[in-house]
Amino acid sequence: MPLPYVLLSAAVSLDGCLDDTGPERLLLSSPADFDRVDEVRACVDAILVGAGTIRADNPRLLVNSPERRAARRAAGRPEYPLKVTVSGSGDLDPAARFWHTGGAKLLYTTDRGAERAARSGIAADVVPLGAALDWRRLLEHLHDVRGVRRLMVEGGGTVHTQLLQQGLADELQLVLAPLFVGDPKAPRLFGPGTYQPGRLRLVETRQIEDVVLMRYEPTAPGTGPAATAADHHWLSLACRLAKRCPPSETAFSVGAVVVAADGTELARGHSREAGDPVVHAEEAALAKIAADDPRLPGATVYSSLEPCARRASRPLPCARLILASGVRRVVTAWREPDTFVEGADGSGVLAAGGAEVVVLPEYEERAKAPNRHLAG
Ligand SMILES: NC(=O)c1ccc[n+]([C@@H]2O[C@H](COP(=O)([O-])OP(=O)(O)OC[C@H]3O[C@@H](n4cnc5c(N)ncnc54)[C@H](OP(=O)(O)O)[C@@H]3O)[C@@H](O)[C@H]2O)c1
């Protein structure tokens, strides 16, 4: 199921704290950075915070700039992004500013929390998600029912930690403020638990007055049938690689990337690469990796088109090459149509060989784009 693009936003002190323990909210960002945050808010469909942040900070979470609100209206969007919070307990102050400022509000909670919220007269749409709160279900609901395509999450640490650990965060926008908190009881950005192995990708650093913005993307592939944010990133790269293929009237243009479990890119390839008129994308990528590379069994192959099941130009089709390499997870955007081979079922070959195949149809149009002349 497609999910919104999830952007985590936070400011931390040099000792990694989100706040101090005083009654007032600690201002970590600089004025220009608060304005940048306002701009990011203006570009999203919804802003989410945990109930802990509502209790601690009593935030409004508005787009403050009248010009940005006017631009949203002019684009046919609501003046303010939807405000979303999560609470298992439903223990929320109905007088909090969150409920009485800005546009529409939404509370995701448990069945018990919904009863409590109803009793206290919370002014919001309340969506109970059963006995416990499941983040993937919550994001699916936001996407499918509320039309949220871009979600900004503004804390706190409990919420950020879960979204990152569950592979549901597409991007982390972290601002480092030049001050120390020093209080061992102060809330930290990320708690203990299992994070992605390996390193995240640093995509930007920006000095804004005396703070530094760092933007990171997760890199580690998922491990089962559910796609992670990093899976989306890699499949999107495979679709971009497909655009580099020399044109052909007799073969698809496909891009592929092979990624180790810790998020290291092992190789990439595309159809008809390096002057070989028949090489396939997955074949070109796998050929760049030593056959005994110990990272292959834990790796994921991303291919804009399902790996081929039959081919005349080489002894082995790509589905068999992938199985022979030891890779046991494939993420693809588009099942192979009957254009050149009738009833090709690379996914079936892979699954029969013990590989997990994940199809993300929301990328199908991008995978098809360099092949329009064939499909037509
Ligand atoms: N510097 C920054 O950028 C920044 C930004 C935001 C917040 N903050 C700071 O962060 C602190 C608050 O962080 P926090 O970690 O205590 O709170 P939080 O992450 O804002 O909210 C945690 C609460 O959300 C609900 N929740 C989260 N995950 C849940 C799940 N899986 N199931 C059910 N309920 C769930 C629970 O509410 P219930 O308890 O109601 O069940 C939980 O107590 C504050 O000090 C605030 O100032 C700083």
TrEMBL record:
PROSITE patterns associated with the record: CYT_DCMP_DEAMINASES_2
Top-level enzyme category: hydrolase
Catalytic activity: 5-amino-6-(5-phospho-D-ribitylamino)uracil + NADP(+) = 5-amino-6-(5-phospho-D-ribosylamino)uracil + NADPH + H(+); 2,5-diamino-6-hydroxy-4-(5-phosphoribosylamino)-pyrimidine + H2O + H(+) = 5-amino-6-(5-phospho-D-ribosylamino)uracil + NH4(+)
Pfam families: dCMP_cyt_deam_1, RibD_C
Source organism, top-level taxon: Bacteria
Record EC number: 3.5.4.26
Secretion signal, residue range per the UniProt entry: none
Positions of the CMP/dCMP-type deaminase domain: 229-350
InterPro entries referenced in this protein's UniProt entry, alphabetically: CMP_dCMP_dom (IPR002125), Cytidine_deaminase-like (IPR016193), DHFR-like_dom_sf (IPR024072), RibDG_C (IPR002734), Riboflavin_Biosynth_HTPR (IPR050765)
Metabolic or biological pathway: Cofactor biosynthesis; riboflavin biosynthesis; 5-amino-6-(D-ribitylamino)uracil from GTP: step 2/4
Protein keywords: NADP, Oxidoreductase
Family stated for the protein in its record: In the N-terminal section; belongs to the cytidine and deoxycytidylate deaminase family.
Biological role: Converts 2,5-diamino-6-(ribosylamino)-4(3h)-pyrimidinone 5'-phosphate into 5-amino-6-(ribosylamino)-2,4(1h,3h)-pyrimidinedione 5'-phosphate.
Protein name: Riboflavin biosynthesis protein RibD
Species whose genome carries this gene: Streptomyces actuosus
